[in-house]
Amino acid sequence: MRVRGWDAYLSVGTSPTPHGGVGFLEYRTLFSDYGRWAGSGDLTRALEPYNLDAFGAKGHRSGDGEPFLAVNYMDLHVLDPACGIGLHRHRDNQEVFLMLEGDGLMVIGDWADSGTRTRSFEIRRLPAGHLALLKGGNLHGLLNPADQRASLFMFGGYD
Predict the structure, then answer these.
(1) Where are any strands of DSSP class E within 80-143?
(2) Which among 116, 98, 102, 105 has a CA at the least distance from the CA of 148?
(3) What digits encode the pLDDT tens for the residues 21-45?
Protein backbone atom coordinates (compact mmCIF):
# COMPACT_ATOMS: atom_id res chain seq x y z
CA MET A 1 0.00 0.00 0.00
CA ARG A 2 1.22 3.48 -0.85
CA VAL A 3 -0.03 6.46 1.14
CA ARG A 4 0.37 10.01 -0.13
CA GLY A 5 -1.29 13.33 0.68
CA TRP A 6 -0.68 16.95 1.65
CA ASP A 7 2.69 16.16 3.26
CA ALA A 8 3.78 13.12 1.20
CA TYR A 9 3.86 13.59 -2.59
CA LEU A 10 5.98 13.19 -5.72
CA SER A 11 6.21 16.91 -6.48
CA VAL A 12 4.79 20.26 -5.48
CA GLY A 13 4.66 23.49 -7.45
CA THR A 14 2.73 26.54 -8.50
CA SER A 15 1.12 27.03 -11.88
CA PRO A 16 0.49 30.65 -12.90
CA THR A 17 -2.51 31.16 -15.19
CA PRO A 18 -3.37 27.42 -15.31
CA HIS A 19 -4.50 26.35 -18.80
CA GLY A 20 -4.64 30.01 -19.78
CA GLY A 21 -6.82 30.98 -16.82
CA VAL A 22 -6.17 33.59 -14.15
CA GLY A 23 -4.41 33.56 -10.78
CA PHE A 24 -2.27 30.84 -9.27
CA LEU A 25 -2.88 27.16 -8.65
CA GLU A 26 -0.72 25.18 -6.23
CA TYR A 27 -0.44 21.48 -7.02
CA ARG A 28 0.87 18.33 -5.39
CA THR A 29 1.35 15.31 -7.61
CA LEU A 30 0.36 12.29 -5.52
CA PHE A 31 0.69 9.43 -8.01
CA SER A 32 1.64 9.49 -11.67
CA ASP A 33 2.56 7.39 -14.67
CA TYR A 34 2.40 10.54 -16.79
CA GLY A 35 4.97 13.10 -17.98
CA ARG A 36 8.31 12.77 -16.21
CA TRP A 37 6.98 9.74 -14.28
CA ALA A 38 5.98 7.83 -17.43
CA GLY A 39 7.15 4.25 -17.09
CA SER A 40 7.82 4.62 -13.34
CA GLY A 41 5.25 1.99 -12.44
CA ASP A 42 3.85 4.29 -9.75
CA LEU A 43 0.30 3.35 -10.73
CA THR A 44 1.05 -0.25 -11.66
CA ARG A 45 0.12 -3.32 -9.65
CA ALA A 46 2.74 -6.07 -9.39
CA LEU A 47 1.29 -9.50 -10.13
CA GLU A 48 2.21 -12.90 -8.74
CA PRO A 49 1.35 -16.19 -10.47
CA TYR A 50 -1.59 -16.73 -8.08
CA ASN A 51 -3.13 -13.22 -8.63
CA LEU A 52 -6.13 -12.68 -10.87
CA ASP A 53 -5.48 -9.88 -13.34
CA ALA A 54 -8.12 -7.37 -14.51
CA PHE A 55 -9.50 -9.99 -16.93
CA GLY A 56 -9.70 -12.79 -14.35
CA ALA A 57 -6.65 -14.69 -15.62
CA LYS A 58 -3.90 -16.27 -13.51
CA GLY A 59 -0.52 -17.73 -14.38
CA HIS A 60 1.59 -14.59 -14.61
CA ARG A 61 5.29 -14.52 -14.02
CA SER A 62 6.30 -13.10 -10.66
CA GLY A 63 6.82 -9.36 -11.10
CA ASP A 64 4.55 -8.90 -14.12
CA GLY A 65 2.49 -5.77 -13.79
CA GLU A 66 -0.74 -4.21 -14.94
CA PRO A 67 -2.06 -0.65 -14.76
CA PHE A 68 -3.98 0.38 -11.67
CA LEU A 69 -7.41 1.19 -13.11
CA ALA A 70 -7.09 3.49 -16.13
CA VAL A 71 -5.62 6.29 -14.01
CA ASN A 72 -2.44 8.08 -15.08
CA TYR A 73 -2.27 10.85 -12.47
CA MET A 74 -3.70 11.89 -9.11
CA ASP A 75 -3.19 15.44 -7.81
CA LEU A 76 -4.18 17.75 -5.00
CA HIS A 77 -4.84 21.33 -6.14
CA VAL A 78 -5.25 24.55 -4.18
CA LEU A 79 -6.83 27.46 -6.03
CA ASP A 80 -6.14 30.94 -4.71
CA PRO A 81 -9.09 33.34 -4.39
CA ALA A 82 -10.36 34.40 -7.83
CA CYS A 83 -8.15 31.77 -9.53
CA GLY A 84 -9.57 30.22 -12.66
CA ILE A 85 -8.38 27.21 -14.65
CA GLY A 86 -8.88 28.27 -18.25
CA LEU A 87 -11.31 26.58 -20.60
CA HIS A 88 -9.51 23.66 -22.27
CA ARG A 89 -9.98 20.06 -23.36
CA HIS A 90 -7.99 16.84 -23.26
CA ARG A 91 -8.66 14.92 -26.42
CA ASP A 92 -8.36 11.41 -25.02
CA ASN A 93 -8.39 11.48 -21.24
CA GLN A 94 -11.18 11.63 -18.73
CA GLU A 95 -10.91 13.62 -15.48
CA VAL A 96 -12.55 13.57 -12.08
CA PHE A 97 -12.66 16.59 -9.76
CA LEU A 98 -13.62 16.24 -6.08
CA MET A 99 -13.91 19.57 -4.24
CA LEU A 100 -12.48 19.10 -0.76
CA GLU A 101 -12.76 22.60 0.65
CA GLY A 102 -14.32 25.77 -0.68
CA ASP A 103 -16.72 26.31 -3.53
CA GLY A 104 -16.05 26.26 -7.26
CA LEU A 105 -17.83 26.96 -10.50
CA MET A 106 -17.28 24.24 -13.11
CA VAL A 107 -17.76 25.19 -16.75
CA ILE A 108 -18.31 22.27 -19.11
CA GLY A 109 -19.43 22.06 -22.69
CA ASP A 110 -18.75 21.10 -26.25
CA TRP A 111 -19.66 22.05 -29.77
CA ALA A 112 -23.43 22.15 -30.14
CA ASP A 113 -23.09 22.45 -33.92
CA SER A 114 -19.63 21.70 -35.25
CA GLY A 115 -20.58 22.99 -38.70
CA THR A 116 -21.15 26.55 -37.46
CA ARG A 117 -18.81 26.12 -34.47
CA THR A 118 -21.60 27.20 -32.12
CA ARG A 119 -20.68 26.28 -28.57
CA SER A 120 -22.93 25.12 -25.77
CA PHE A 121 -21.73 25.50 -22.16
CA GLU A 122 -23.11 24.68 -18.76
CA ILE A 123 -21.97 26.24 -15.48
CA ARG A 124 -22.45 24.21 -12.33
CA ARG A 125 -21.61 24.93 -8.74
CA LEU A 126 -19.07 22.49 -7.30
CA PRO A 127 -19.28 22.77 -3.49
CA ALA A 128 -17.09 20.86 -1.04
CA GLY A 129 -17.88 17.15 -1.06
CA HIS A 130 -19.17 17.17 -4.65
CA LEU A 131 -17.65 15.39 -7.63
CA ALA A 132 -17.51 16.24 -11.34
CA LEU A 133 -16.87 13.48 -13.92
CA LEU A 134 -15.65 14.68 -17.31
CA LYS A 135 -15.57 12.57 -20.45
CA GLY A 136 -12.62 12.78 -22.80
CA GLY A 137 -12.93 15.70 -25.19
CA ASN A 138 -15.20 17.83 -22.95
CA LEU A 139 -14.28 21.51 -22.83
CA HIS A 140 -13.94 22.43 -19.17
CA GLY A 141 -12.64 25.01 -16.72
CA LEU A 142 -12.90 25.69 -13.00
CA LEU A 143 -13.18 28.97 -11.12
CA ASN A 144 -12.79 29.73 -7.43
CA PRO A 145 -15.05 32.81 -7.11
CA ALA A 146 -14.58 33.14 -3.34
CA ASP A 147 -12.22 35.29 -1.31
CA GLN A 148 -10.67 32.19 0.30
CA ARG A 149 -8.63 29.31 -1.07
CA ALA A 150 -10.34 26.19 -2.43
CA SER A 151 -8.80 22.71 -2.52
CA LEU A 152 -9.64 19.73 -4.67
CA PHE A 153 -8.51 16.21 -5.47
CA MET A 154 -8.39 15.38 -9.15
CA PHE A 155 -7.33 12.41 -11.21
CA GLY A 156 -7.49 11.35 -14.80
CA GLY A 157 -6.55 8.73 -17.28
CA TYR A 158 -6.49 7.73 -20.89
CA ASP A 159 -8.64 5.05 -22.47
Answers:
(1) 84-88, 93-101, 103-113, 118-127, 131-134, 139-143
(2) 102
(3) 999 999 999 999 888 998 888 888 8
